[in-house]
Amino acid sequence: MAGAGSIVGEPGKQDGRLDLFLDRGEYKILTYASAKGSGQAKLSVHAFRWLQDRPPLLVEQRLERATLDDFEQRSYWLEVKEKHTVAIEAAGRHLSDLRLWRDGTWLVNVDPQLVISQARADHPLQIARFTAQLEPGLYLVTAYGGQS
């Protein structure tokens, strides 16, 4: 219903990879070969692996440190006691996305701003940040790992 998505990769040069949130249903995937391409395409699907059984509660102004690798996700609960604006930032070599889930199940319509930091040329970091006006409730902040 949303129509065609973006083309990722370049036939004959670079494999395509999409990290997506998908609802239940059927999806059509089209692959393209270079003009002289032949053979078979390989498709694989990976679920993100939870790194915690019980995500900890975020404490305001306290820095959290943890590891995150490709196809992994790490979450933290955020309790909002009264309506106010929150700012959340995460950084890492394998960080690919940062999302906010109301009650841990409903995706909040806040897209993170993604930038690459070159503070150390040999270790570029992906930084994800967003600011949101939140109603009282419990939210799950989840960081998703991707390619470095």
Task: Please characterize this protein's 3D structure.
The protein is an all-beta fold and 148 residues long. Helices cover 0% and strands 36% of the residues. 12% of the residues are buried. The mean pLDDT is 89. The chain has a domain at 49-145: Jelly Rolls, CATH 2.60.120. The protein contains no helices and eight strands. The protein is globular.
* Rg over CA atoms: 18 Å
Q: Work out the helicity level.
A: under 10%
Low-confidence stretches: none
* Strand order across the largest sheet: 1-2-8-4-5
The beta-strand count equals: 8
Which strand-content bin applies to the residues? 35-45%
Q: Ends: how far apart?
A: 32 Å
Q: Would you list the SSEs in sequence order as H and E?
A: EEEEEEEE
Class per helix and strand makeup: mainly beta
In short:
By secondary structure, this protein is mostly beta strands. It has strands at residues 49-50, 72-80, 84-92, 95-102, 106-107, 113-117, 125-134, 137-145.
List keywords for this structure.
148 residues, mainly beta, Jelly Rolls, 5-stranded mixed sheet, 3-stranded antiparallel sheet, 0% helix, globular
Write the layout of secondary structure elements.
Layout: E1 49-50, E2 72-80, E3 84-92, E4 95-102, E5 106-107, E6 113-117, E7 125-134, E8 137-145
Parallel strand pairs: 1-2
Antiparallel strand pairs: 2-8, 3-7, 4-5, 4-8, 6-7
